[in-house]
Amino acid sequence: MSNPAEKPEVVQLPAEPVSAPSASSRRAAAQRVREARDKLTSTSGTRPAFDAEMLRQYAQTRLSASYVVMLLVVATGVLFGLWMQPIPAAAWTAGMLCIHSAMIRSCRRFLTEPASPAATRAWRTRFVVLDLLYGLCWMAILIHPVLDMVTETLMMFLMLLVIAVSSMLAANLPIAALAATAPVAVAMALSFVTTGSLDNYILAALSLAAEGYFVLLAHRLHSSTFATLEARAEKDALIGELEQAKAISDEARHRAEAANVAKSRFLAQMSHELRTPLNAILGFSEVMKSEIFGAHAVPVYKEYSADIHNSGVHLLNLINEILDLSRIEAGRYELNEEAVSLVGIVADCHHLMKLRASSRGITIHEVFEQAMPRLWADERAIRQVVLNLLSNSIKFTPQGGEIWLKAGWTASGGQYLSVRDSGSGIPEDEIPVVLASFGQGSNSIKSAEQGAGLGLPIAKNLIDLHGGTFTLKSKLRIGTEVIVTFPPERVMSALAPLSDDSPPLQPESSVVPDEKRRPRHKPIMSAGTGS
């Protein structure tokens, strides 16, 4: 007995990931579908809205040229009344005026009624029929047998005039222009051909050529009008999209502002809620660390109290940094500006951080220019900037490294501060990261002393508030340098007093004309570059 055939193993191939179409491709696809649907529901192959607009322009053109057409009909009837009997000419004139009045009345009714696809198709058919009757009436008068005595040149001129006027008036509706002009041109061509002479053959050919030319001209005018409408529709659509995008952006901005206000309220409330118990922790831990009420029974309790106090101080500094960054981002940080010495602030910060640097075997060098004038700035903000920069340099500089502190003049007359270390450096692609709020580089994450990532962003924002520049340069395994510059407008300089012959602010008294005027002086210190 043979074994049954084994069932073949079916291996399912992994499905290829389908990428979601972009917004622009979805918008283009929706537009193509909408245009195809509009063409299927339109009578002319265009959008239904364009059909209604074309008919509206056609009706407006007819109304604006109604008196010109009436004048042409009356003049032609009077002229033909001279060659034929007056009664047939008057009857033709009356019939033409009736058709023209029906056309004018239809145009006015069309402009007053609301537009709809069904009504547009009905009015389109009505206008084409009226134009056809208009052309047949002109054909009847031009090929009348009584007018054989009229020269072919005059007949040709009248035919061209009729075709030109009809083509221009019905250019927005090409089928109506063809219905109004084709009977006239074909009838005139046949009338010329039946005579049998060569000149009339040429006139017949010219009649057909003129008909083709004016039909082409009407088609070109229709195309240009359609292109104008299409451009206007695209412009309106673009304006609509821009208004919608603006509304969305305004709504997003309002949400962001509300979120920012909520964040500010939360931080303000949390700062109070955290600082109240934190002050108690710091106070009691300091009392226990200092053994004010007596020595501890177990000596290790003193070390624990010191750790609690140091952790509380670190947490308090972190809360203060978060609040400072929140106020800066919200634009509510106010500078308490006064005349300060940049060199003095840098030297004080060096003195505060010297013990910490010495414990790590780091040497700090000072390079200060002498006799530098004061700056008009916020002393607390500048001190916070210098301490943050110096603390980062000490944190990421290995034992036995060096740090250089520099302060001096800039080329434009301002002052600068530079902090350079011989640490591990920062990769170039991570510089924007460390300058962002709560951003930390790879070296900071790997090191034992991790911070919150707020020192550099706060320092940069504080310098921006002073109108200065904050530049960070770093190379791996070489070191990092931060250069802070202050504009010349913040440098305080002494101004010389005015000369004695300067005019007084008020006229001298006539009682004591010989009294000498005292020289007037301006204040010694003033903000600016000085001259």
Entry summary:
The chain has 531 residues and is an alpha+beta fold.
Q: Catalogue the unreliable spans.
A: 1-18, 494-498, 509-531
Strand order of the largest sheet: 2-4-5-7-6
Q: What is the overall silhouette? A: rod-shaped
Strand fraction: 5-15%
On the 0 to 100 scale, the average pLDDT is 79
- How would a crystallographer describe the biggest sheet? 5 strands, mixed
Number of helices, counting only DSSP H or I runs of 4 residues or more: 14
Helix content: 55-70%
What is the SS-derived class? alpha+beta
Terminus-to-terminus distance? 116 Å
Written as H for each helix and E for each strand, in order along the chain, the element string is HHHHHHHHHEHEEHEEHHHEEEE
The gyration radius over C-alpha positions equals 47 Å
In total, the number of strands is: 9
Structure description:
By secondary structure, the chain is of the alpha+beta class. Among the domains are: 29-246, no CATH class; 338-490, Heat Shock Protein 90 (2-Layer Sandwich). Helices cover 61% and strands 9% of the residues. The protein contains 14 helices and 9 strands. The protein has helices at residues 23-41, 48-64, 66-81, 86-112, 117-142, 152-169, 174-195, 198-290, 300-329, 342-359, 379-396, 431-434, 442-446, 455-465; strands spanning 337-340, 363-368, 375-378, 402-409, 415-421, 469-475, 479-486, 492-494, 525-527. The chain has a 5-stranded mixed sheet with strand order 2-4-5-7-6, covered by helices on one side. The protein has a two-stranded antiparallel ribbon with strand order 1-3. A hairpin with a 3-residue loop joins strand 6 and strand 7. Helix 2 crosses helix 4 (86-112) and helix 5 (117-142) runs parallel beside helix 7 (174-195). The model is unreliable at 1-18, 494-498 and 509-531 (pLDDT under 50).
